[in-house]
Design brief:
CATH superfamily: Carbon-nitrogen hydrolase
Number of domains: 1
CATH class: Alpha Beta
Distance between the termini: 10 Å
Number of strands: 15
């Protein structure tokens, strides 16, 4: 069966997050670009990058953020504005973590804008959407649902998949938290058994799964991660054929990687290829396609860049079906497209 695959590499700016309308307008551009390239009779999957919805915490706070110079300062300014509400959240959810309380307090706003935008566009363009991810607590209401309330104050890097009817058909929590980055945010790691891991792509019998960024790597970044899980290997054993890997790389792509092991000196881009999904896919028996979008963002002291790709496996050989050019700024904004026939492999 032929499937249209779309990999969204968005260049996001702060004003894309200040209002629900701005976020939906930005996201709609990518659906429109993808729709212009697809064959309407074919199933279509569009994949957005990791953390694309996390910064919806800034919605409604444009004036509050004026004059801040770091992301810590920006979120601290929002926290000061909502100090009493933060204290109430800490009491209600029985947490002493200000970071957890901050994400929990903003969770309903993030969810409402993120889910509403993605679901409406999934229905409009009749596509299945891996909607990237956001830092959120679990939902009090079981999926599928249009409602959201934080279940507790444990914060996950959470991804959802939405079908062409606008319903959530799949969700997953990131298992491996990136050292020096996510482990500093008081996040909770997911596990291979705490959520549904595989679902069929709607209208097909193609097993679809999501491995959020670092979960697409075949080895840990450091030697101090005894709990690292090879998620792609596990998904391959479960029979996944199509994997979305939403990513947001916080290190400079073409500069030396700061977590390099002693005796090695590689660019981040080289380390990504040698230890990430490109290498992991060569060892797979069932996974045929990995769609790996990268978030592009420059805001205050925060930086994300990289090269988005759609990878395909032919036996033990991996082909790059589509790849973005490496660039930064607005020129990095793109939608990759590939067509794959799952019936021939």
């Amino acid at each position: 069966m032929l499937v249209d695959l779309f990999c969204v590499q968005p260049y996001m700016r702060p004003h894309d997050y200040y209002t629900p309308e701005a976020f939906q307008h930005r996201v709609a551009r990518y659906f429109s670009q993808a729709d212009a390239m697809r064959q309407t009779h074919r199933p279509a999957l569009i994949v957005f990058p990791e953390d694309i919805a996390t910064f919806l915490l800034m919605a409604g706070h444009q004036d509050t953020l004026a004059g801040t110079h770091t992301m810590d300062a920006a979120f601290r300014a929002i926290g000061q504005k909502k100090f009493l509400a933060l204290l109430g959240t800490m009491g209600r959810f029985q947490t002493l973590s200000m970071r957890r309380a901050f994400f929990t307090l903003g969770a309903a706003q993030v969810w409402r804008i993120w889910y509403t935008s993605m679901a409406e566009l999934a229905r409009q363009y009749h596509m299945t959407v891996v909607a990237g991810s956001a830092l959120l607590p679990d939902n009090r209401w079981p999926y599928p649902t249009h409602q959201y309330q934080p279940k507790n104050s444990r914060i996950y890097n959470l991804s959802i998949t939405i079908d062409p009817k606008g319903d959530i058909i799949y969700y997953t929590r990131k298992v491996n938290l990136v050292p020096t980055q996510e482990d500093q945010l008081d996040l909770t790691p997911g596990s291979l058994t705490d959520a549904q891991r595989i679902v069929f792509l709607p209208t097909t019998q193609i097993p679809l799964a999501t491995a959020i960024c670092y979960d697409g790597f075949c080895r840990p970044h450091t030697d101090q991660e005894p709990d690292f899980v090879n998620v792609l290997e596990a998904l391959d054993r479960q029979g996944a054929k199509l994997v979305a890997q939403p990513s947001a790389n916080p290190w400079w792509w073409n500069e030396p990687w700061p977590l390099e092991r002693t005796g090695q000196s590689r660019l981040r881009s080289v380390q990504w290829d040698e230890e990430g999904s490109l290498a992991a896919l060569q060892q797979c028996q069932n996974i045929e396609i990995i769609v790996n979008p990268q978030l592009q963002l420059e805001f205050l002291d925060l930086h994300f860049d990289g090269q988005s790709r759609i990878l395909a496996r032919h036996g033990a050989q991996v082909e790059i079906l589509a790849a973005s050019e490496f660039t930064r700024g607005p020129e990095a904004d793109t939608v990759l497209h590939a067509v794959w026939d799952f019936s021939t492999t």
